[in-house]
Structure formats: C-alpha cells, structure tokens
Amino acid sequence: MRIAQLAPLIEPVPPTLYGGTERVVSTLTEALVERGHEVTLFASGDSQTSATLVSVTPEALRLAGITNALPASLLSLRMAFERAAEFDIIHSHLDLVPVPFGRFVPTPVVHTLHGRLDLPEIQPLFEYCTDAHLVAISENQRRLVPEWGWVGTVYNGINVDHYTFHPHPGDYLAFLGRMTPEKGIEDAIQVAQLAGIPLKIAAKIDPTERVYYDERVAPLLEGQGVEYVGEVTEREKDAFLGQALALVFPIGWPEPFGLVMAEAMATGTPVIAARYGAVPEVIADGETGIICDSVQEMALACQRVGTLDRAACRARVAERFSHTRMADGYEAVYRQLSAAERPGSPPLPGQQRDNERATASAGPEVG
Fold first, then answer.
1. Contact 144, 134 (CB under 8 A)
2. What is the pLDDT of residue 342?
3. Coil, strand, or helix at residue 22?
4. Helix (H) or strand (E) holding 227
5. Which of 60, 22, 10 is nearest to 208 (CA)?
6. pLDDT tens digits, 203-262
7. Angstrom distances, CA of residue 156 to CA of 97, 169, 202, 255, 286
8. Residue pair 37/100 in contact by the 8 Å Cβ criterion
9. Cis peptide preceding 256, ω within 30 of 0
10. 3-state class of 267 per DSSP?
11. Helix or strand or coil: residue 291?
12. Phi and psi dihedrals of 70, rounded to 5?
C-alpha cells in the first residue's frame, strides 16, 4: 500500500530526547517499510527514516525554540492533502488539526489521537465530525467517548530488541516523563520518601512548565534521596529504566496508553502505577507491576515489587505491545478503510451516522 504518515513536528522522528508519539510514529513507519509498503513520512527535516521523508520544517520545533506547533501542523496537512491522490491511506498523528478536513480528500484519512479526549471543549468537534476515522490506542480511551467514529483499537508498540534486558532489580525508583502535575511527579517524590528508597527523575521541562517546576517541584528536590537527572537520551533511557527497582507511574489523568510503561517492562523493570486511564490494560497487576489506589499503597508496593519476575515483564511487552503487533493492527485498519471506499461497500459506523444526519436534515423529497 501507499501510506502517508503525518508526524508531530515538536520532536524529530525518532526523538533524540523526550517524545512518545514521535517514537510510536517512527516504530510504525519502519515496520511498515519492512513489510514492503511504500511509506511517505511528513515530519521535521532532522528526522531519520527508511521511508521517503517529506521535510515540513527544517528541524524539530522544540529544538528550534518554537512552542506554537499549529502553523507547522497546518502546513503538513496542506502538503499531504494536496498529494492525497498519491496515497491509498493517510494516517495522521497530528491530534485535532486534521479531523474536520479528512472528508474533503479522495483518500481515506485515519486519525490516531495520542492526547487526552476528556476535555469538554473538544466534544463538539467529534460530535459534528462523525465521519472521522479514529483509532484508539487503548480500550479505556475508546470507552470515554464510545459514540465517536472509532474504526479500531491498536495498542502502541515498541521494538523490544532495542531495549536491554536487566535481570536483576536495582536500588532506586525511576520516574520518566514530562514535568507536569498530571504526570504525578509530586506523588512520585512522596512515594519514594514514604518507602525510604532513592528516586531518580528524568523529565522534560517545557517553558510553559517552568513555573510549576520552580514553585512546586524544585523545593521537593532538596530532600535526601531525590535526584533530578534532566532529560535523557535514548541510550541513557535504556539504562535509566533497566537499572531501576521499579518505574513509578502515579498519573492523575486518563492516560490513553503510557508508552514509558512498556519501555520499562521491556528492560525487565516492573511498574508501580495509579489505577487510571489505560494502566490496567498495559500492566498485569501482580505480575508485571502493581496497580494502586493511593500514594500510601504505592509506597507499600515498593517493598514487594522486587520479587516480580522481570523476564515476565519483558515477555508481556513482546506478546502484546511489540512493533509487529502494532503494524498488524494498523494494516487491518488500512484494509478496512480502503475496502469501505470501494463502490457497493457498506458504510463504516461513523459514515452511517453521518449519512443518517444528512438525510434527516434534508427533509422529504419534493416531486
């Protein structure tokens, strides 16, 4: 198939530092190329890929000091859509920007939404654009808004071979993510202090998050046993996660997947996580991690997480969250959408609702 992948432009593909969505796009793109598909990647010019790269911006926006991604996202959309006839499928990872416009091009457009969908201000967009083809990255993400135009659920995937297996537990807790309240950094520090176990924090601090870090987090780093190591590279992340006793994942929002959980388990490191979002789908509670309902439970879980089978953690990722499983899922979605475009094919669920709404608004025919 001829497939266009539209990547976010904040980070290169794959990211050199933080960047979960860009890592997923890279992993999927490479898997599709390996399977013989003709893939065109719309991304920043400093991206590395075996697909055909279309440089939307010279370099990733964050590395260039640009915080507003909307103009570049619109440019990517224009560049891809004006070439729509060259592709069998256009797959967007640009969040909300392309959702209203997919129906105006001759090629099926599928949207993977990697961010939160529980915000009330975005509800009218999807309630109106019922013809948008959406792929969920977890069943929990889909359950939040079941009436939207879902055409499938495909878990994010990683190439397990790119992660080093560490068979023995380390002596510190790891936190890896963005420096935002919803990621639970303050809870992670409290967990470590209650458990009496050192905590190492690897986190990105965006300019918009600087005040939060300075006022809320930095004062907590003055205590013993808490170390902020900054933002880590891919190679540093592998060791950072693999040498830990556990990854602490005390999120406070409905995380649609949580790629860092799969990455930690791929190195053999189990996860101690809050019961929120897709966590129960990613972690096998009591086997590859421990799911908790409070900071106190997480602190207690630290005392027994070292007994979990680290080989089982890696095996779960290889079985459920591999790059091949992800590619299988998206190939099925692409085939489904391509078949639906053929004359005489039954409409997809979103198309059916859109057709019904159009018929109702048109009123009875006049002879």
1. no
2. 54
3. helix
4. strand 226-230
5. 10
6. 988 888 899 999 999 998 877 799 999 999 888 999 999 999 999 999 999 999 999 999
7. 21, 26, 22, 13, 22
8. no
9. no
10. coil
11. strand
12. -60, -50
Has residue 337 got a pLDDT over 70? yes
Whether the Cβ atoms of residue 8 and residue 21 lie closer than 8 Å to each other? yes
Distance between the two ends of the chain, CA-based, in angstroms?
45
Torsion angle of the four alpha carbons 83, 85, 91, 93, in this order, in degrees rounded to the nearest 10: 20
What are the distances in angstroms from CA 281 to CA 132, 285, 288, 312?
A: 25, 9, 11, 16
Residue 240 and residue 200 in contact, taking contact as beta carbons nearer than 8 Å: yes
Residue pair 247/258 in contact by the 8 Å Cβ criterion: no
Residue 276 pLDDT exceeds 60: yes
pTM as predicted: 0.89
Which residue, among 148, 56, 152, has the nearest Cα to 110 in the 3D structure?
152
Same fold, 2-157+324-362 and 161-320: yes
User: Rounded to whole angstroms, how far apart are CA atoms 93 and 257?
Assistant: 14
- Domain 2-157+324-362 part of CATH 2.60.40.10: no
Task: Label the pairing between strands 150-153 and 173-178.
Answer: unpaired
Helix (H, G, I), strand (E, B) or coil at 148: coil
C-alpha to C-alpha distance for 9 and 76, rounded to whole angstroms = 9
State both tokens at 117. Answer: 């969908």
Q: Which of 256, 35, 22 is nearest to 134 (CA)?
A: 256
For domain 161-320, give the CATH number.
3.40.50.2000
> Where do the domains of the chain lie?
2-157+324-362, 161-320
Secondary structure element (H or E) that encloses residue 74, with its range:
helix 70-81
Specify the amino acid at residue 95: D
* Residue that is written with structure tokens 């004359």 in the block: 343
175-195 per-position pLDDT tens digit: 999 899 999 999 999 999 999
Q: How confident is the model at residue 341 (pLDDT cuts 50, 70, 90)?
A: low
- Separation CA 330–CA 334 (nearest Å): 6
Cα–Cα distance for residue pair 254/182, rounded to 1 Å: 9
